Amino acid sequence: MLVTVASAKGSPGVTTTARVLASLWPSDVVLVDADPAGGDLALWMRAPDGSPLDPEHGLLTLAVEARRTPNAAVATHAQPTDGGLPVVCGLQAPEQVAGMGPVWPAIGHVLSSAPGAVVADVGRLGPDSAALPLVEASDVLLLVVRPAVESYSHLRERLRWLARHNPGPRGMPAVGIVVVADPRDSRAVRDLQQLLAHGAFTAPVLGAVALDPKAADVVAGRVERGIERSLLVRSVRQLVEPVYDLASTRHFAHVTRA
Ligand SMILES: Nc1ncnc2c1ncn2[C@@H]1O[C@H](COP(=O)(O)OP(=O)(O)OP(=O)(O)O)[C@@H](O)[C@H]1O
Ligand SMILES: [Mg+2]
Q: How much is the pTM?
């Protein structure tokens, strides 16, 4: 099962949400940093002994293997981290995207057929996004948005484009939306739901990721402390089941067809 996490525009908290979601996933999971603009996870996370991760070992080595064989093993390119979550480190510089060339569809195939689940951060999503083949191969695309008029406007444009985009017989993944919002603002989810319903968009708003700067600092490795009980972790825990259910609709349809 492949879950891709992306934004329509801006930096609403894709990497933060993807990392927390993967750490709470109920079965075996690998977190993949596939943001073509350059990865953050290699800088945010640490090996179990506290040492830095090897930024050279990850998406680039996976690309080399995926180019040779459709049976590449994602796990071989993942590194263990201190919370136990295996991570495939991302690209260090945007120039490396050019070197990846036509291998993205092969990576999409490898990630979507991996045993267990894969949560992949694909960064900003648009028609020219190099990581689009990963989205096309995924079971669910999770779009992260902040509650602001301009964010909603970009989200609507992206949903319009996704509805028209048809990559082939498998079609596009199920799309779900999450709003990074102040936990005291109970209207954020409802307002966005209503806005999308007016425009006849069918993508469900799955819920809110709590705006929680202190916990987000921990996720980004800027501060060390436990965040088990933080609003951020508690809010993302509520999203695991809806994301899983949404992903299952396409995952099992695909499995049945195969
Ligand atoms: N739930 C949250 N609550 C508070 N701050 C957050 C939250 N999620 C992310 N942030 C903060 O917002 C900033 C951007 O977050 P993040 O890097 O996750 O976003 P992104 O969409 O992946 O951005 P980029 O375009 O750089 O890849 C960071 O400073 C991060 O700590
Ligand atoms: Mg990011």
A: 0.96
